[in-house]
């Protein structure tokens, strides 16, 4: 509406770079009946003005980028450029006549890349686009076109990243046929977008959030979340999981790269987003190294062959490409494995042989040795956590962890000989074989010399002490042992030196990382639970008082991290004391660890500290185990009719600390919370039963007895708190 003369006059002074005039021309040439032929040449003039700012915004360091403004992009948006481009893109959808308007692919590409550049440089544009649901869903329809696929995918990814409300995949027009139109490469790109739609936005799903907050949130959310609905939508797309499994397990040599080197480079550029423009110089360096290598290897007569190899994508880039794809695919599979349809996903993944496929890629791709010119992003080193190589390893370990956690299919991680070995261990020990081992379909297990679990153990033992992978490796192996304790599984891993490796890390290398220590303690607990041979081997390794003291110091340095191990030792000791076997009696008398735990004063000390480090207001998924461990100690005491003695001792300990009531009042509140939390109809109590071999009914009874209001009952907590110090009636609202 502003006159051309005015725009021209102000242009220089306002440093508008002629953008408003160009937009005015664009508006005139994009009216409903125009053929858009002029639009493209106008966009070609606008585009460089914006893209140079976009490149500047991502290559500058973040701090400078925040301070600098991008006048061209700002002017473009100020004069309605963003809305005009949306209108041009969506015009064909508004026309009802038979003669559909066709916008050329190049015009669509230009519109999309200008929108993307504006999003990068101008605050709030991405959010505005995200609020237009019609536009977001329309973008998905552009993905059917191969030529505009990458630009569209990149823009969608940016928009979904800031969208307040998660989109519903159901709303995308013809989703199933859209997905089936993708080739494997596009499907991998699409997985990046899917990741945002199937992961819970709710920050409360994090371990660090308090259980009070989570429980309050759960009461509000009655139906399944959007992420859960989206997961179900994906599973209903015919052949979707099968294609993901194929993508995840294909070898680098199977990738049919028909596109030229330059096309691939352009794809990389878009795929990594401009923020990794620095990848390009690395890529070019790699490409040159490769080319030089091949030219020195060949003499003149193969000059012709040389030109063709130069046009091909160099091997390190091919590998890198494959790693980037697999990363996205494994992430999606991992989320689905942890979702509501877990059993259905498990069945499909087994059937499409994901595990044997990953096993065959283990050495060559997943845990490959870095080549000299491994791709390292500018300013990063090979081992920093953002390199794709490292992210792939972590994603792979997370997948293994969610795959084997409390599921019979975990035995697919072994090969046939290893399964036979499990049976042999059971026969030799005279115990029945685990049903799941007998029922495992041998046609779906790993092939080759070793299964995935054994390969994982091998790399775990070679991992440097301060490596960030140790945490994930230990978690993956521990989830294989979780559930009902299996002697054969434990022995299988112990035969491969796992117990000694863990003790070496905890004691000899005096590991300092809290996360790694916690995962090693948890793994050690699962490995030794109820296994007399494990305690014997422990004693053989921890064979001096000095070593034992270091071990105890590590346990005591953080009970939140080590309490699962304390629970395992307590439960095992209780079981061994009730057995009348000569071998067990011998280990009981010799093993430092069991002797230590059999002292009443030690058990009381653990109990006192476990109750003291948690409070209802600070309970999280991570530290609630301390409450369950303290309950295990008291349930075992109740079985031996020692419960009053334990409560009385806690009371004595409070007096010694000159603070009567502070432990028992706190414990009373914690147990009331326990009832609220675990007696919820959705709560799964089988984990507590399986890990302790104590029936859930006994857990519930013990808590009820402890919470009895009868001050004359010798097993009620209130009997041990003086009236003056009672502080148990407070309701714990979310604080």
TrEMBL record:
It comes from the Eukaryota. Residues 290-310 are annotated as: Disordered. It comes from Nestor notabilis. One of its GO terms (cellular component) is Cul4A-RING E3 ubiquitin ligase complex. Keywords: Receptor. SUPFAM superfamilies: ARM repeat. Pfam families: DUF3689 (PF12463). This is Short transient receptor potential channel 4-associated protein.
